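Blackboard transcription, Thursday session:
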Amino acid sequence: MADHLKAAFCRCAEDLPEDVLVLSAGSEGLTLSYDSLSMKGDLSDMLPRVRKENLNRELLVKAAGLNRLANQEKALFAVDATAGMGEDALLLAASGCFVKLYEKDPVIAALLKDSLKRAAKIPELQEIVSRMELTEGDSLEGLSSLQGKPYVILLDPMFPERRKSALVGKKFQLLHYLERPCEEEEALLNAAIQAGPERIVIKRPLKGPYLGGIKPSFTMEGKAIRYDCLLQPQRVSGMKER
Ligand SMILES: C[S@@+](CC[C@H](N)C(=O)[O-])C[C@H]1O[C@@H](n2cnc3c(N)ncnc32)[C@H](O)[C@@H]1O
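(Written on the board underneath:)
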């Protein structure tokens, strides 16, 4: 694993140099740590949000239109092109979607894989997680070789403002050592449009610019973020620059 992560391997905690990010494997899963901060992926935190009585109130579920699409015979196909720690993807899967997740950072992908493995042992999450399939890699490539057209593609690229935001939970602070601001936003959006989904949902900072300068069909605002939604993105013409 160390080779894959291009990291140095250390068998003993005492041998670790100071001032480095450490990924350690223990009986309770993978932990990322630096100084006094440590985190592991833990989708059990999401349990209250995926419960039936709460799920349809989630802004993402509404932005994806999933609150109005209950009781589908076949699971809708969703793609989370910027998976991170998989929380948004979990909401999509809890709403009945089969979700293909792409995460290109190998350390974040390893933490997410481990988190999904542990979530699969939690009875209330087991079925939901069984509809989530993680691929470690760049979604720019993944989106061009999908089997079938997705119903929804979620894009949540890292934006610089969020690095400084007090709204970023403590547990995610460490990830910011790994996440890079997305330099390929426009390419990502184009790849999502080319994949031919019914809609693209883009998570943005409340006051941030439109991704790629493309005006969405509609926007849903929360307290700290908003979702820009593009309906039938391939057919929409005359999208205006902001
Ligand atoms: C802001 S986080 C996403 C958080 C996620 N929505 C969640 O619920 O945890 C953005 C993530 O997208 C990943 N990413 C950015 N560009 C990507 C790409 N082209 N392919 C795959 N992953 C990408 C980054 O490594 C980072 O982990």
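Lecturer's comment: The two ends are 45 Å apart (CA to CA).
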